[in-house]
Design goal:
The chain has 271 residues and is α/β, with parallel strands linked by helices. The chain folds into two domains: 238 residues, Phosphoenolpyruvate-binding domains (TIM Barrel), CATH 3.20.20.60; 27 residues, no CATH class. Helix 3 crosses helix 5, helix 5 packs parallel to helix 6 and helix 6 packs across helix 7. The radius of gyration is 20 Å and the shape is globular.
């Protein structure tokens, strides 16, 4: 039997078993109760309460503005809708960088107030001290390397990272440092597929790719992107599995037409 289908509750240990068994890990974002409940019931392994909520839910141009309080709120909503999936909560910009005590305090708040199962943070060797301190509280940590959206103002662009040898070697070094620090998995975002394949093979912990090729141990997408709810974001790595934007547009227009045409509500829809 496949590891994932046999798991009544997905844990960090489940993900490790899946990598060892050569079984791909599936991860999607969710930010609210209703969609998280649907995504969980469909059988997803991991739900990421992403700081991409800053873009998707709040309309900001980057992930930087979202606060710890916002992330805790979204995570609370998601946890209430989930029975099986592992819930990973992004630590927002400013909640862990540069001060390991702040990082620990932030992670504890996320776990205590949201009920999430683990946290994710961006960066390599420079955040190892924060990771190690968070782990002292027994909080599982997922890493994130490659394109790190919280650093967008440093990069200046959302282009593919680690194409040059120097940056590629730094990513390999960082990935091994995160594994040594105790991360249970690492997200690779927008890095060359061959590099992701190499690092995935060298690490013992699972890797989750987004724009990083098929050879990562799992894949993640933003739910609203893959469902076609958001239309103004079409990177090469995105596959749209539905066009809910068009469905919603049609449903709303039909409702407007029915109300104005006095065909809604009917006698059967009235008391």
């Amino acid at each position: 039997m496949a590891i994932a289908s046999g798991a009544k509750k997905v844990t960090t240990h489940t993900l490790q078993e899946m990598k060892s068994n050569g079984e791909k890990i599936t991860m999607l974002t969710s930010y609210d109760y209703s969609l998280a409940r649907l995504v969980d019931a469909a059988g997803i392994d991991v739900i990421l309460v992403g700081d991409s909520a800053s873009n998707v839910m709040a309309g900001n141009e980057s992930t930087v503005p979202i606060t710890l309080e916002h992330m805790i709120y979204h995570a609370q909503c998601v946890v209430n809708g989930v029975e099986r999936a592992l819930v990973v909560v992004d630590m927002p910009f400013g909640s862990y960088q540069g001060d390991s005590k702040t990082a620990l305090d932030s992670a504890i708040r996320i776990m205590k107030e949201s009920g999430g199962h683990s946290v994710k943070l961006e960066g390599g060797i420079e955040v190892v001290e924060s990771i190690e301190r968070i782990l002292t509280a027994g909080i599982p940590v997922m890493g994130h390397l490659g394109l790190t959206p919280q650093s967008i103002y440093k990069f200046g662009t959302y282009t593919v990272r680690a194409k040059e040898n120097t940056e590629a070697e730094k990513l390999i070094e960082d990935a091994k440092a995160l594994e040594a620090a105790g991360c249970f998995a690492i997200v690779f975002e927008k890095i060359p597929a061959e590099l992701a394949k190499r690092v995935s093979e060298e690490l013992t912990i699972p890797t989750i790719g987004i724009g990083a090729g098929v050879d990562c141990d799992g894949q993640v997408l933003v739910l609203h992107d893959m469902l076609g709810i958001t239309k103004d974001f079409s990177p090469r790595f995105l596959r749209r599995y539905d066009d809910l934007g068009a469905s919603i547009d049609g449903a709303v227009k039909a409702y407007i037409s029915d109300v104005r045409g006095r065909t809604f509500p009917t006698d059967d829809e009235s008391y």
